[in-house]
Amino acid sequence: TTPKLIGISGSLRAGSFSTAILEGLKDALAGKAELNVYRLNDLPFYNQDVDTETPPAAVADFRAAIAAADGVIVASPEYNFSMSGVIKNAIDWASRPYGKGPIRGKPTLVITSSPGSTGGLRAQAPLRETLYAAGGLVVHTPHIAIAGVADKVKDGKLVEQKALDFALGGIDALLNEIRVRKA
Ligand code: FNR
């Protein structure tokens, strides 16, 4: 069966390059895997008071979407040399209930990007560390960082072939990790 992936965008803005990378990859995957591009606009701030057996609907939806996936792609911008607050918040939700968060044991690929020349690389290490803490099985290599992303996106999708191929290489590593886990 075709592997199911969830692609979580770490930016809420309509014209987000992080979201566009996921949308471009969804097309480029061409049947190799299904990619559910997931936007976090409805997810509230983490609050342990409401993280009960019946959490907010948006939280339940997000957790179920991760649980239904064989693997996870996190596409985050770099904000002040780290991941966006939006993605940190989402990983915090995905890390709970304690010891049973849906991201636990899920092969996970990290993608960063920036309109600048560093491709969001400084967000990679903190993002990986947070994902390890949450129990995600982070794909070690490659580190997918897309620089100059503004010039590589058209009509809400990553279209530049070199960047697509680079990111698809990361997805190959992710799919391989999924296969190894299932064997
Ligand atoms: C940024 N940006 C940015 N870029 C970068 O390469 N390194 C950084 O540390 C930061 N820091 C930063 C902080 C804040 C608060 C904002 C709003 C922006 C620029 C950032 O890469 C750019 O806005 C991207 O377009 C954001 O990603 P999306 O929204 O296109 O996915």
TrEMBL record:
Q: Gene3D superfamilies annotated for this entry?
A: 3.40.50.360
* Residue span(s) of domain NADPH-dependent FMN reductase-like: 3-148
Official protein name in the record? NAD(P)H-dependent oxidoreductase
Q: What is the lineage of its organism?
A: Bacteria, Pseudomonadati, Pseudomonadota, Alphaproteobacteria, Hyphomicrobiales
